[in-house]
Design goal:
Layout lengths: L1 E6 L20 H12 L3 E6 L8 H9 L3 E5 L5 H14 L4 E5 L1 H5 L12 E4 L5 H10 L7 E3 L31 E4 L2 E2 L11 H6 L4 E2 L2 H14 L4 E4 L8 H11 L8 E5 L1 H6 L1 H9 L2 E9 L3 H6 L6 H14 L2 E8 L6 H14 L3 E6 L7 H8 L25 H14 L4 H21 L6
Parallel strand pairs: 1-2, 1-3, 3-4, 4-5, 5-6, 7-10, 10-11, 11-12, 12-13, 13-14
Antiparallel strand pairs: 8-9
Helix pairs in contact: 2-3, 7-8, 13-15
The chain binds cobalamin (B12).
Cobalamin (B12) binds next to helix 1, strand 3, strand 4, helix 4 and helix 6.
């Protein structure tokens, strides 16, 4: 069977953003589906809207690929683009079956069920179930419009298909070198923050499943051999939650030919409880941690069910500074019920922590989360359409929040981060020099 997988991905930066290499992340969900389908002998192509210059290119591409089925992935922010893509595909060839999957269809089936251009809604993970039902979908042997996927054992599925997206991924931080790759070691999150859960539990289940450190390392070696690997981002929501997993991984990664700079996400409480682990990570290449500090107010942290304290925020930052680990600091401004005094406590925290990269965002109620339900129930949301489901601090999100005040707060954080501009500049220069030397010896691979 001929399958085309469609990555909508233009809601943030528009058409052609991938051509300009502004955003060149691969989408791991589609890439896993690709390898699972190829293993069963199906032909798989990609339609990456980020590589197109406008909607007018889509029908021609669909005709050229001439697939039996198109699978579209979607986050909430992708909704409009995904739905429009489905309509164009059906108008181009009404025989093509259109199936949507990913986080948004899993949690918001009701928004898609009546759409005449969508044949099937896929909920949950696809590697096991989609290859099994593909023929039945095409032959219209499935009665229900909704299909639910079984959860795979991550050690038993093929490596993610890194060749599906035809571009190399772009390093987004000054301390990361080319070739840069992203990776996902596990699915699910044990924490219960109300700005995220229960959406992820609905998609991946209550328990976290992780690939074994051995298999993860095998995949990195395979990638290094076939694409090259000079820096790595591990996307997991909270990789460091499983200390034993990380310790085993470090043992395997701590080799002269590896020890490449890597970044991952962490929680302040875990850093405070396990400083030794982070020391080892730093020795093995940890270049930067993306830390969810979220707020400088204990009341807001409790309101968010984050399960951390203001004190842990400060202590974890101190530990990272001592160890020489760069901090990419995530903060939320304008959480429902937040007062100006509480926002100021967050600003004070950014000022004191002096992160390498401060990343303050405007709290955004994402569908599928308990805080989204709270905003709906209390009529607090100012979000008018799906494309506004992004936390970039560009538009008001919550009623009762003074966004003029928040914008001033944002300006202040930019001023505050000037101190570290020099450090970022030096990193950039060093990495540029490294990339130049490397590409002289070995030109960057093409996929
Ligand atoms: C990596 C990541 C990113 C990366 C890369 C994004 C990318 N291109 O994939 C970056 C940093 C760029 C990013 C950006 C954003 N992200 Co993000 N991201 C993640 C993260 C941490 C991992 C995604 C992943 O790879 N998962 C592993 C793969 C294997 O799972 P999967 O993609 O869900 O795919 C499986 C199933 O869903 C299903 N499936 C998926 N697609 C399809 C399609 C078909 C046809 C079928 C049958 C099945 C199917 O099968 C797959 C295999 O089993 C998730 C959280 C998480 N743990 O999943 C958040 C998450 C998806 N992101 C989220 C958000 C909000 C965003 C942003 C909007 C944030 C912002 N700036 O405001 C942007 C939007 C970017 C855009 N679309 O342009 C939310 C989405 C919530 C929602 N309701 O939409 C999540 C869930 C985090 C959270 N809990 O809040 N993100």
């Amino acid at each position: 069977m001929k399958t085309a997988l469609l990555y909508p991905g233009i809601a943030m930066d528009g058409f052609a953003c991938g051509v300009r290499r502004k955003t060149a992340y691969m989408q791991h969900g589609l890439c896993h589906i690709s390898s699972a389908l190829k293993k069963e002998g199906h032909e798989v192509s990609l339609i990456d809207l980020r590589q197109l210059f406008g909607w007018e290119e889509l029908p021609g591409l669909v005709r050229k690929i001439n697939p039996d089925i198109v699978g579209i992935t979607m986050m909430s922010v992708d909704f409009d683009v995904a739905v429009k893509s489905a309509e164009i595909i059906k108008n181009t060839n009404s025989n093509i079956k259109v199936i949507v999957g990913g986080i948004h269809p899993t949690i918001m089936e009701s928004e898609l069920i009546g759409n005449p251009h969508i044949d099937y809604i896929f909920k949950g993970e696809a590697e096991i179930t989609l290859p099994k039902v593909l023929n039945d979908i095409i032959e219209e042997n499935i009665e229900s419009k909704v299909i639910t996927g079984d959860k795979p054992d991550l050690d038993k599925i093929p490596f993610v298909d890194r060749f599906l997206f035809k571009t190399l991924e772009s390093p987004w931080a000054p301390c990361l070198r080319m070739p840069f790759i992203t990776s996902v070691a596990g699915r699910g999150c044990i924490y219960n923050c109300n700005f995220c859960q229960p959406a992820e539990r609905k998609l991946f289940g209550a328990r976290v499943r992780r690939v074994s450190p051995e298999r993860f390392m095998e995949e990195l070696e395979f990638t290094k051999r076939n694409i090259g690997l000079e820096s790595l981002m591990i996307h997991d929501d909270c990789l460091v939650e499983d200390v034993k997993w990380v310790e085993r991984f470090l043992k395997l990664y701590d080799r002269k030919d590896f020890r490449k700079p890597f970044v991952c996400q962490a929680r302040p409480d875990i850093i405070v409880k396990n400083p030794g682990l982070f020391k080892d990570m730093k020795r093995c290449g940890l270049a930067m941690l993306l830390i969810g500090f979220e707020s400088g107010s204990q009341r807001i942290l409790n309101f968010l069910r984050k399960g951390i304290t203001v004190d842990e925020n400060y202590k974890s930052a101190e530990i990272c500074k001592k160890l020489g680990i760069r901090i990419f600091a995530n903060f939320m401004l304008g959480v429902p019920t937040e007062t100006k005094e509480e926002t100021s406590q967050t600003l004070e925290m950014i000022k004191k922590i002096q992160p390498y990269t401060p990343s303050p965002t405007f709290y955004t109620p994402f569908p599928g989360s308990d805080l989204f339900e709270y905003c709906e129930k209390n009529n607090l949301s100012l979000i008018k359409g799906h494309t506004e489901y992004k936390r970039n601090p560009t538009a008001p999100k919550i009623k009762g929040i003074d966004y003029e005040f928040l914008n001033k707060a944002l300006e202040e954080t930019t001023r505050m981060s000037r101190g570290l501009r020099f450090k970022r500049k030096i990193d950039k220069m060093k990495v540029r020099r490294f990339n130049r030397r490397l590409t002289k010896k070995h030109p960057l691979p093409t996929i």
